[in-house]
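Researcher: I need the complex structure. Ligand is adenosine-5'-triphosphate. Inputs:
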Amino acid sequence: MRRFLCKLKTNILSKKRVNVDLVGFIIPLTLIVIWCFVTLHGRIPSYILPNPLKLGQIIIDFAFGIWNLTPYSGKLFENLTASIIRVLCGFGLATFLGLALGFLSGRIYFIRRLSDPFIHAIRAIPGIGWLPLAIVWFGVGEETTLFLITLAAFFPIYTNTAFSASQVSPLFLRAGRMLGANKITLFSTIILPATFPSIIVGLRLGLGISWAYLVLGELTGVTKGLGAVMMDSRMLGHVEMIITAMVFIAILGRITDIILVKICNLIYPSKEGAGGTSDTGYLRLGTPARS
Amino acid sequence: MNLDKELIINDLDKIFPLPEGIGSLRVLDKISLQLDRGEIIAILGPSGCGKSTLLNILAGFEKPNKGEVYFKGTPVTKPTSQIGMVFQSAVLFPWLTVKGNIAYGLRFKKYKDKEIDTICQQHIHLVGLEGFEKYYPNQLSGGMQQRTALARILALEPKVLLMDEPFASLDAQSRITMQQLLLSIWSQIQPTIIFVTHDVEEALVLADNVYIMSKLPGRITHKIKVPLGRPRPISVIGTAEFSKIKGDILTLLFS
Ligand SMILES: Nc1ncnc2c1ncn2[C@@H]1O[C@H](COP(=O)(O)OP(=O)(O)OP(=O)(O)O)[C@@H](O)[C@H]1O
Ligand SMILES: [Mg+2]
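Model: Output:
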């Protein structure tokens, strides 16, 4: 336990020098300049697109409530927590189901035959297509949101887990059994680490999708949450609040992704080429390829 | 049955179903072998004659259709660290370091962390990998990977080593180094070794007895006792005796 805490500390404290590529800033900066230009010179009215300075003020006001610029002044925290809790619940449930079913169907041929066709048939329905039915079943709001997040995040987690679990080299399993592993330790010392890189890809995709479906679910009508802020602001004509909420969703999505990767790194530290193919570690930050 | 023998292989048959699902392929046909404790045998045979299949059965990875394998008088039915296999590709766990790989099997035994450390260190020394403890398998050369695989199984003190063309993918020089390393390890701990190879010289440098297998279905057709003493330094390859027996075996293989 102490070793774990030490590791946690060094892991969080060790800030490696990040090489920033300045070229990446050209497009965003240009866009901001254009944005300033078109909004400050009155070409585009502020009820369509607020100017960046105004938006900056609103964002700060949303967070700290110092200027009372909108009805949401200072209400960031409560809306943020509501959204985060929903994402965590939905994503957590999807992770649990995705990993459990993924390992079962990846490792046990009969279960794969039993469940794979069904799961892939369901997967063919776009997540958004479940919205009307979800509303009928769960009503608008909380449960519908949870249902949509779980459903949508489940598939990438399940698919990546099941596929990688079925691809574990039989030679690894033979070597493990020969070296003394039993059924349980074979899972924890071979199948789990061998599938871990793909599981992380699945989890990261799932987490990204969770945020998308959070917004969809919250738009149907919840009292608190970033999606609710967006929907209500539209009706109240506060376009700047819509954009503010979008900004926070982007930031949160990115932060939760980084935290997820950090946690994964703590469980199995990233190592050179452990994924087998690349010679850079498999847990580098960056967007995973869509599978 | 002769219970003094370390390993008794009795009348093994192995039949694989064909991929199309109809018919079957007889791969091993009445294989019988007996090995003394500490004996090294080499098995030579054409590609696809069932050598790997035989080793897989001996290691307990596969079941024969007929016949049985006895290790010290008890039947072998499932993998055990007493009978260790070194595969053609090292099959190291890529998520573990050299040391982690060597410690892998030790963690399932009742060792303290300290003892695991000591045993790892001994075996790293035994195979000459000092300084590479923290390397991951993909940062090692092929020869170093095979050394790690060897250390990983030796750390569990197996009584029998099954080696399936373990040095086939190495260049000539590392292959000779590895053969000499294996001989030096053998002189220290005397495991019983079954060594599958395509290379007649390798068989002669290592083995007490060389067995020759036929094409499918694999049968043992000849047993040749190697009349060379031990220790066998690499210079033995140059001797007239060595050339003669090598010629004899090549004639048998291609007749
Ligand atoms: N799991 C399997 N299912 C069906 N056929 C198999 C299986 N494993 C091996 N065979 C067949 O058994 C035969 C012998 O294979 P094996 O791998 O034992 O040969 P080998 O002597 O080791 O060859 P090589 O020297 O090329 O390694 C081959 O014809 C192969 O196609
Ligand atoms: Mg083979």
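Model: Summary of the prediction. Chain B has seven helices and ten strands.
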